Amino acid sequence: MPEGTLCNKKTIDTKEQLQALLADKSGKEYYEQMNDLDVDRKALWGVIQKSLKSRTKTWLEICSHCGLCAESCFYYLANNRDPKQVPSYKIQETLGKLIARKADVDNAFMQKCMDWAYSKCTCCTRCGVYCPFGIDTGIMFSYLRGLLYGQGFVPWEMKIGSGMHRIFRAQMDITTEDWVDTCEWMAEEYEEDWPGLEIPVDKENADIIYTVNAREPKHYPEDIAEAAILFHVAGENWTVPSEGWEETSLAMFAGDWEAAKMQVESVYDAMDRLKPERMVVTECGHAYRATVIEGPYWAGLKTGKTPIDSLHYVEWVAEALRTGKLKIDPSKKIKEPVTYQDSCNYIRNGGLADVAREIMSYIAEDFREMTPNREHNFCCGGGGGLNGIGRYREQRNIGMKVKRDQILGTGAKLVIAPCHNCWDAIRDLEEVYKIGIRWSFLKPLLINMLEVPEHLKPKEE
Amino acid sequence: MYEFLTGPMVWISFGIFFIGLIVRGVRYIRGLDWKLDRVTYGENISYGVRGAVRSILFWLFPYGTRSWRKNPWFTLWVFLMHFGILITPIFLLGHNILLKEKLGISLWTLPEAVADTMTVVVIVSVVFLILRRIALPEVRIITNWYDYVLLLIAVSPFLTGFLAYHRVADYYFWLMAHIISGHVLLIAVPLTKLSHFLLFFMTRAQLGMDYGIKRGGMKSKGMAW
Ligand code: HEM
Ligand code: SF4
Ligand code: SF4
Ligand code: SF4
Q1: Which of A154, A185, A218 is the last residue of a domain?
Q2: A378 and chain B in contact, CB less than 8 A
Q3: From B40, B207, B223, residue closest to A375, measured CB to CB
Q4: Which residues of A touch B223 (CB under 8 A)?
């Protein structure tokens, strides 16, 4: 079984392996080696036989080929209604054939599966909502990604990402020390403006344990400071764990289920260790999906729930506004037209559509819905890991056209996107299509609108 | 021949129909796996039941879901076809006369003109569905011969019955064709994709439970199908 030094079936468990992959700029050598990667047909078929159960089997079998799912897929619409983008077609040509051939497939077929599973589907699960039989192609593509991962057919960035989770329990190379330092630094940095501001690390029995997306400590540390400010103003008794602070899961996008399990268990361990009342997750869609919605199943928790109640950031914000913990200065509400990006991961797949509207009712005077919206909203185009994969940049940029037109349709120039992936995709969308929009998380907007109680304001010298 | 097809063969066909569907249903349920499907079927039962019921009911009504509403013509013809396929044979006068002769029981029956119209509607719907498969590129690309065969299996009892009833040509020939195609349909249901007769309810319930239990059902009023 020839395997490349970079592209192979092995998991990335050491820093040396990780370094070697990172040194291979854009995965040039990695993808070269992929051309020679053998398919271990026996092992692949073995995995399929063990994991392909009646749900997926029946989905593949009874699809009536009616085509109702076609228009539901933003890729189909963005690619001028290309029939090759019909969800049913995409899955039958890949997973369907893989199974029909009992995994007797070659390298070219596996590469095609990889290309399709990543560049033709973001696992947004919208098509499943439009199929009379409830056939969820997004779920099937995610399953296919897992099969591909096991055979080493996975985009370079995703292989690195899942390796990061295995080594650092975070999607980026951030150590416990880096993380704790960042928290301390941010607390100091903003203390002058917000006297008494703290980012308590590893405090036991807090009301809230706050967990984030590794991009925040790495690239946007002010996001952590903003979260701290809002908790501070709301008077919350909160903490961040020194370990188990990362919510995201590139492992989920990669189909590396073992790493996905390791990652969420680190968060659940922090819950056990610090015994907080509830968890609040930062403004990230897939992070919430991974750790709160799917995670309990990876970890084998029979209740299907996280060990303690878990909230997406928007739930906490809505609650704080509702109970008056956070008060908005009416004169500072957003006056211009503003729209909201419903993330597939916590809206369609998390049931938080009403919560998002509730927030908008507090902060915006001219809130414009996209069409369609709520559970039926289109993916921004950057889901499923697509934002981070260089190989499929072009396909992603084409896919973003649907979101572009949805935003233009609202007439709003400001898009609120409480999801890191959506936020990125909308930023890139502006870069590519230049439609003159701005985009924002909730935190900075809220801080600018707050009515801050006197005693929390800095003392005038 | 006629005696056999309207006697023992009826038992055989219905036997295959019912036993086949039961086997399908049992295999489906036994193949559900809470960990692999990532749905706690056995826990959070009230959320699961609510999700399943909503998921089936919304889709059971024409124009009950966004997807049905977005495709008004397709929805119209698919519902008419199914309504005709499921109702006409059960309440047809001729079938009930046979039932009376053989078993001594009989159901309420449709006026003959109504049954006749419903038969025509089934045939027209199937013609519409076939033309749609040919005309629309997004449907053509996923259509294979199997889909046409199933449409033919579904329509032939109606087509042949119509021809026999109206004595268009050789009555006995069309009557035999009608009886045989009826048997074929009954047997095909559990053995082909037509098993969606039962599996529709299974897969809808499954996704409904997924949404009801895991994907937001506990934090919202329920999935807006
Ligand atoms: C003997 C009974 C049945 C027969 C012969 C039958 C036949 C068919 C056929 C031929 C199609 C394909 C339509 C097309 O070409 O697009 C179809 C689709 C479908 N059937 Fe049935 N069916 C039966 C029972 C049922 C039942 C009981 C239900 C559910 C209540 C059902 C729900 C559906 C649905 C949801 C579709 C998908 C519509 C579509 O997208 O094509 N069917 N059926
Ligand atoms: S809507 Fe469902 S049944 Fe129809 S083609 Fe798509 S996956 Fe198949
Ligand atoms: S899950 Fe989303 S991206 Fe994937 S096929 Fe379905 S609609 Fe398209
Ligand atoms: S990035 Fe946002 S819109 Fe896109 S798939 Fe993820 S959650 Fe959905």
Answers
A1: A154
A2: no
A3: B223
A4: 129, 351, 375
Q: Which residues lie across from A450 on neighbouring strands?
A: A328
Determine the Cα–Cα distance for residues A318 and A362; give it in Å rounded to an integer.
Answer: 9
Cβ burial of B51 (10 Å; 0-12, 13-18, 19+) is: buried
Measure B89 CA to nearest chain A CA, in Å: 23
With an 8 Å Cβ cutoff, are B204 and A133 in contact?
yes
Q: What CATH number is associated with residue A87?
A: 1.10.1060
Report the nearest-CA residue for atom 6 of ligand 4. Answer: A383
Is residue A21 in a domain?
no
Residue A461 has pLDDT above 60, yes or no: no
User: Does A204 lie in the same domain as A85?
Assistant: no
Q: What is the b/e burial string over A244-265, where b = at least 16 CB atoms within 10 angstroms of the residue's CB?
A: bbbbbbbbbbbbbbebbbbbbb
Which residue range is the domain that position A140 belongs to? 39-154
What is the residue type of B109?
T
If asked whether residues A175 and A136 sit together in one domain, one would say: no
How far does the centroid of ligand 2 lie from the alpha carbon of residue B162, in Å? 31
What is this structure's pTM? 0.96
Look at A304 and B43 and tell me if their CB atoms are within 8 Å.
yes
Q: Which residue of A has its CA nearest to B134?
A: A66
Q: Tens of pLDDT along B149-191?
A: 999 999 999 999 999 999 887 899 999 999 999 999 999 999 9
Interface probe for B, chosen from A264, A297, A301, A369 (most Cβ of B below 10 Å), is: A297
Angle between helices B93-103 and B72-91 (to 10 degrees): 30
The verdict on A127 and A238 lying in the same domain is no
CATH architecture of the domain covering B2-213: Up-down Bundle (1.20)
Assigned domain for A395 exists: yes
Residues A259 and A342 in one domain: no
Instruction: Decide if A118 is inside a domain.
Output: yes
Residue A359's Cα: distance from chain center in Å?
21
Check CB contact of A332 with chain B, cutoff 8 Å: no
Does residue A460 fall inside a structural domain? no
Q: A104 and A178 share a domain?
A: no
Which atom from ligand 3 is nearest to the alpha carbon of A125?
1
Q: What is the ipTM of this complex?
A: 0.96
Indicate if ligand 3 lies below 6 Å from the C-beta of A162.
no
| Total domains present in chain A | 3
The residue among B45, B61, B67 whose CA lies nearest residue B209 is B45
Task: Tell me the three state secondary structure of residue A200.
Answer: coil
How many CB atoms neighbour CB B27 within 10 A? 12
In tens digits, chain B (225 residues) has pLDDT values of 889 999 999 999 999 999 999 999 999 999 999 999 999 999 999 999 999 999 999 999 999 999 999 999 999 999 999 999 999 999 999 999 999 998 899 999 999 999 999 999 999 999 999 999 999 999 999 999 999 999 999 999 999 999 999 988 789 999 999 999 999 999 999 999 999 999 999 999 999 999 999 999 999 999 999
A69 ligand 2 Cβ < 6 A: yes
Share of chain A above pLDDT 70, in %: 99
